[in-house]
Write a structure and sequence with these properties.
By secondary structure, this protein is of the alpha+beta class. The chain has 7 helices and 20 strands. The strands form 5 sheets. It has a 6-stranded mixed β-sheet. A hairpin with a 2-residue loop joins strand 6 (70-74) and strand 7. Helix 3 (101-119) packs parallel to helix 4 and helix 5 packs parallel to helix 6. The protein starts with a strand and ends with a strand.
């Protein structure tokens, strides 16, 4: 059985824009729902803190749909939606709040779930989490593990799927700034995709923390009649549940690409759309800036140096969710086809 949409559903679109193009789009009669900016502060975009290591410089992933748009705030979440698609963002400054990261993540996600209920866009499609000092000690527990604990409890509090059926997501470490969450939501549920090479993150053993991460490896989202988006979560050099190739950035990059290809193959089993890594838009998170040329060489050898993926890829200096991981890649794209239930 395939999942189809009404022709009246406005399409969800995503475009990677220069800051100048983003400025023009933001001034249009119907601006984007929201934008994730990479690099220095970009007016009107939710900037991901980190040094851009790619030659093209700062970029914005602009998520758009048809108007009219409504915008507002629920708790700390700023949001904009058109009744079908929603983009939201929240920032919490730990120094100001005076709370640990587990408490703040639970609070942030409670506000996110409140937003879904308030707007009627009740299904999370994709989340981006940005944590300062992600690998640092948070008072006896690594900060990423603190975040995972608060996030999972918030999902359970709200009655949302914290295990099978969890949305696609990433958690990236920043070198400063507030704890931030950005998210896409809609009126229909996504179809989660797992990687057969990896243990599902929500089934990780307790050696990775008191509560497992709450995300699926990817999501398939019908974004218009006959069009499907593939939203791939942050992907790294993990086989089963273990990090592999410690200290070898080239091998880690290749293993990450192997995992991306495995996720794409798994997605093809759930939809008629065909996706190609060489045509997806990627963000490559690089722990050590001097590794960027090595990572780029492996990536471009896999996708082709002149491929759309190679030309549009953004390389950003950032920390990864495990201290032994040196690179992480996330990706998204839209193709013609339908999702099979």
């Amino acid at each position: 059985m395939t999942v189809t949409l009404l022709h009246s559903l406005p399409a969800l679109r995503v475009a990677r824009l220069t800051p100048q193009a983003w400025s023009l789009a933001s001034a249009a009669p119907v601006p984007p729902l929201g934008g994730l900016g990479y690099g220095p502060l970009i007016d009107g975009a939710d900037t991901v803190r980190g040094r851009v290591l790619s030659a093209a410089g700062p970029m914005v992933d602009a998520w758009s749909s048809a108007g009219p748009l409504t915008q507002g705030q629920t708790g700390r979440v700023r949001w904009r939606h058109n009744g079908h698609w929603l983009y939201g963002a929240i920032e919490l400054d730990e120094a100001v709040e005076g709370k640990d990261l587990a408490t703040l993540s639970r609070q942030a996600y409670a506000d996110i779930f409140g937003t879904l209920k308030h707007t009627g866009c009740s299904h999370l499609q994709r989340l981006w989490n940005y944590l300062p000092g992600i690998n640092a000690d948070g008072g006896g527990l690594e900060r990423y593990r603190q975040f995972n604990a608060g996030r999972q409890i918030a999902f359970l509090d709200a009655g949302y799927a914290a295990f099978e059926g969890a949305p696609a997501a990433c958690a990236i470490g920043t070198r400063g700034g507030p704890f931030c969450v950005r998210f896409l939501a809609g009126t229909a549920p996504p179809v989660p995709v797992e990687n057969p090479r990896q243990v599902s993150a929500y089934h990780y053993p307790s050696t990775y923390g008191p509560r497992a991460p709450t995300f699926s490896r990817a999501a398939l989202v019908p974004v218009h009649t006959g069009q499907v988006a593939l939203l791939i979560s942050g992907t790294a050099s993990i086989v089963g549940h273990a990090s592999v190739h410690a200290g070898d950035v080239q091998a880690q990059t290749q293993e990450t690409i192997n995992n991306l290809q495995a996720v794409i193959a798994a997605a093809h089993e759930r939809c008629s759309a065909r996706f190609d890594l060489a045509r997806l838009e990627c963000i490559v998170y690089v722990r050590h800036a001097d590794h960027a040329p090595l990572i780029r060489a492996v990536f471009e050898a896999a996708v082709g140096a002149d491929s759309p993926a190679a030309r549009s890829a953004v390389y950003l200096e950032a920390d990864i969710c495990r201290a032994d991981l040196l690179v992480e890649i996330e990706a998204h794209g839209i193709a013609e086809g339908e999702v099979r239930a």
